[in-house]
Amino acid sequence: MQAKKITLCNFRNIKSAEISFHPEINVLCGDNAQGKTNLLEALYFASIGKSFRGQHIGELISFGEKQAFVSLDYKSGEREQSISLCLSNNRTKEVQKNRVKIGRMSEIVGSFRTVLFCPEHLSLIKDGPAERRQFLDIAISAADPLYLAALQRYHRVLKQRNALIKAAEKDRTMFDATVEIWSRQLSHEAAFIARSRDRYVKKAIEVVKRCFADMTGSREIPDLLYMGVGGKEYGDYEDLKKTEELLFQKLSLHHERELGAGATLWGTHKDDIEVTLNEKSARSFCSQGQQRSLALALKIAEGELCALDCGEYPVLLFDDVLSELDRGRREYLLGHIKGKQVIMTTCEKEGFTADHLILVKNGTYETVGKSESFT
Ligand SMILES: Nc1ncnc2c1ncn2[C@@H]1O[C@H](COP(=O)(O)OP(=O)(O)OP(=O)(O)O)[C@@H](O)[C@H]1O
Ligand SMILES: [Mg+2]
């Protein structure tokens, strides 16, 4: 996968810009608040139709403007492709792929594939399970449209089931009459989601372990464990019927607890990944640098698994990735990205080579070409 050119209009602080990328290392360099992350955000938006900062599409439109445009030319395999988006009134108004209008934003997911690493990804290790579930959902959805569809159905059923539980506060008749149907549907979708997540975590751990062995000379040994509806010890996610039955039983046995809590208490919306380093909880015991390394290793795994799946490496979008990494870890990372397309941001001039150095100032982008040692 290779980003070739992006054209932007009224996107955050970027009034108008056309930026071409090198097939390998592109470095966006500039002071704080100039528009480095905004450019990565635009690329990411063209990739999955969502921002990684904030929920509202309206925030992406320049202050005082009504519409924003993003148009990306990229190469997938040997094919030249394009995605263009028009944003307005807090929604994506029009989406085109290869100049043909498409109905839903979710149809572009999986077209221009990227792996984003930004400082917020430290929350993958230090925050609650929602961040880790989101990591799995984005990574698996890009590779498997069936997963995305199951996830969308699951959340629709969950919403209905929660509404039923809420309504039962006043009158239980409807709840008693229909809860089993909703529990069955929820369990059915959950079993498929759980199997995909379990498979993904098992593949990711191999890459994460390899990264750490290279980065730390095997001093630090990470582990990941999927904690789904069956808990830590459950080893049967491959058996869809068994997982479905397990969840259905849990849901059926605890109606009173759910009615007391006012929500569905079991299901894949409660899943987590346990992350450990040298057998200790990463969340509680890791240093900042170790947490960053773990988040980065998860992202490297996302890239490698994506490459295995679609036959080419995704574009790496690295926002401020090098800070807090010691020399060994930096060298590992810079070695790892060789030969891949990476678009990365930095405020400081670091000691590495950029094939394409782009100076960012107040929403403008000036390509100054190759920087030999970038010091
Ligand atoms: N909708 C918007 N319209 C206009 N400007 C915006 C909008 N949203 C954000 N900005 C501005 O864009 C500027 C650049 O933001 P960006 O996050 O890209 O900075 P950056 O270069 O990554 O800086 P840092 O090095 O601090 O991370 C900020 O000053 C911000 O106020
Ligand atoms: Mg930034």
Characterization of this structure:
The structure is a single chain. With 375 residues, this protein is an alpha/beta fold. It has two domains: 1-113 and 314-375, P-loop containing nucleotide triphosphate hydrolases (Rossmann fold, 3-Layer(aba) Sandwich), CATH 3.40.50.300; 121-308, Glutathione S-transferase Yfyf (Class Pi), Chain A, domain 2 (Up-down Bundle). It contains ten helices and 15 strands. It has helices spanning 36-48, 123-126, 129-143, 145-167, 173-216, 240-253, 255-261, 282-285, 288-310, 327-337; strands spanning 2-11, 14-20, 25-29, 67-76, 79-88, 91-97, 100-102, 114-117, 222-227, 272-277, 280-281, 315-318, 342-346, 354-361, 364-371. Strands 2-1-4-5-6-7 form a six-stranded antiparallel beta sheet, with helices on one face. Helix 3 packs across helix 4, helix 4 (145-167) packs across helix 5 and helix 5 packs across helix 9 (288-310). The protein is globular and about 70 Å long. The protein starts with a strand and ends with a strand. The model has no long low-confidence stretch (mean pLDDT 92). Adenosine-5'-triphosphate is lined by residues 12-13, 30, 32-38, 59, 61-63, 345, 347. The site of adenosine-5'-triphosphate has 16 residues, from helix 1.
